[in-house]
Amino acid sequence: MARIFIISNRVAIPMAGANPGGLEVVLKATLKNHPCVWLGWSGEVNADPQVATLKKGKNTYIVTDLPPEDFDEYYNGFANRVLWPIFHYRLDLAEFSRRDLSGYLRVNDRFADELVKVLAPDDIVWVHDYHLIPLAKALRARGLQNRIGFFLHIPLPPPEILTAMPNHETLIPSLGSYDLVGFQTDGDAANFARYLAKELGTPSHISHRVSGGARSMRIGTFPVGIETRDFTRLAGRAVKTKFVQQVLKSIPGALMIGVDRLDYSKGIPNRLEAYERFLIAHPQWHDKITYLQITPKSRSQIKEYSDIEQAVNSISGRINGAFSDAAWAPVRYVNRPYSRTALAGLYRAARVGLVTPMRDGMNLVAKEYVASQDPEDPGVLILSRFAGAADEMRAALLVNPYDPDAVGAAIARAMAMPLGERKSRHAELYATLLDNDIGTWGDRFLKVLGPGPSGEVQALSDFIAEAS
Ligand code: GDG
Q1: Catalytic machinery residues
Q2: Which stretches of 152-226 are assigned E, i.e. beta strand?
Q3: For residue range 437-468, what is the model confidence (pLDDT) as tens digits?
């Protein structure tokens, strides 16, 4: 039986009692339904890097350490200081260095070297995210003819932005070495198609030859979802826990919640400013709303991430300084992670879910918030139009995160929304989530990647036509 090789920057090795990470949740059905080998970085930085192999059930996990220079140049450098900001439309934050690019290519080569040792000819390879764009090219250079797919979890910007990235001419076309490249939204896929048409002349240039026949890359849209029904059940149980009840007892009035990694793409400072505008414009809501922002730290070694931390501390301090009284503070800003159960319970308890990234591939928090609600008394989702999730979640209050007055007005609207409207919006959103449950996402991608014709992938020319 063909194995599925999953390749990603980090590997979520299952351990008893551990909280499943984002990628593990997304890949859960694939890991359950197929024998898989998951290969990636162990998370350890080690001058003498070790490779470890671990078996759990029918799945195998292969993790490699990174030496310090690879960690700096590949992870902190090219992946998170160049690709992450540029793919989130933030050219102003990109810090390019040739050294980082060569570290990035070196780690991709390192992963390719590990893979060729273990891949059999009929294994299927599924590569995840921006850390590993040139991996298929590295594998093809080593003579591999397996089917190889790539899924980008983050947005892909238009060619007008992408072409400002030094060395885009070699990096982006290297995606042509994959058999299938998947995106979160049609807009991302269209941006890629436009890039290829503009930079490479005609779509046919993306075909490439491998010995034994012609192969051409296809592109498709595969929006990531969540385990909707499981999450609803979890939230229903979790809201009754002592922890969630204590949180609710400790605040006067309604709870509004935001949950994001501390990242500039998530728009936390803009969101706090919008809340400040709401508090100024609607004094009647003072001490009737508490905004809980849960924000685990991430990538702390990168300067832009410590800058955002300071900005969020300072704005939340300013709001609390200006509006608090002895019995009420308008903002609770928490810098630590919580368990998935605790989050599910808090989502369910929250009257408003505030999800306003400046740019986001999908945003699973928006989907988790909706899945958590009690259908008889649901809360209201306020969602940025620049999150991939906005394509599907049209019944949310869609907002422009660059317009704090409009986001402030949406908070007021959500707080005052009558039960009937809350229920009908929630029913529509929930039906959308059920339509695109994560249980089928991996199999859909693999079916399209697998041999044989498939009607699910649009022709490149369709995307170009849509984009123009
Ligand atoms: C990338 C793309 C795309 C958050 N805090 C805690 C915690 N979380 C969980 C959330 C959610 C996940 O982390 C975050 O997912 P997002 O989708 O919101 O964002 P990224 O991490 O940026 O993910 C994104 C995603 O990939 C999937 O393709 O949607 O656009 O950027 O599940 O609940 N989980 C726990 N404690 C926390 O404190 N346990």
Answers
A1: 153, 360
A2: 180-183, 207-210, 213-216, 218-221
A3: 898 899 999 999 986 444 344 445 455 444 44
Flag whether the pTM goes above 0.90. yes
pLDDT at 211 over 60: no
Overall domain count for the chain: 2
- pLDDT of residue 300 exceeding 80: no
321 and 172 fall within a common domain:
no
Structure confidence at residue 450 (pLDDT): 83
Its domain, for residue 462, covers 4-225+439-467
Phi, psi of 249 (to 5 degrees): -65, -25
Q: Which amino acid is at 238?
A: A
Mutate to test the pocket of ligand 1, among 362, 369, 370 (most ligand atoms within 8 A of CB): 362
Q: Which residues pair with 182 in a beta bridge?
A: 151, 220
Return the best residue to mutate from 228, 364, 365, 392 for the ligand 1 pocket (most ligand atoms within 8 A of CB). Answer: 364
Structure tokens at 364: 């699973």
The rounded Å distance from CA 362 to ligand 1 centre is 9
- Exposure string (b/e) for 132-142, b if CB count within 10 Å is 16 or more? bbbbbbbbbee
337 CB near ligand 1 (under 6 Å): yes
As a whole number of angstroms, the distance between CA 195 and CA 287 comes to 50
Q: What percent of the chain has pLDDT over 90?
A: 82
Residues 129, 131, 134, 138, CA torsion sign: negative
Nearest CA to ligand 1 atom 6: 337
Q: From CA 459, how far away is CA 182, in angstroms rounded?
A: 13
- CATH number for the domain spanning 160: value is 3.40.50.2000
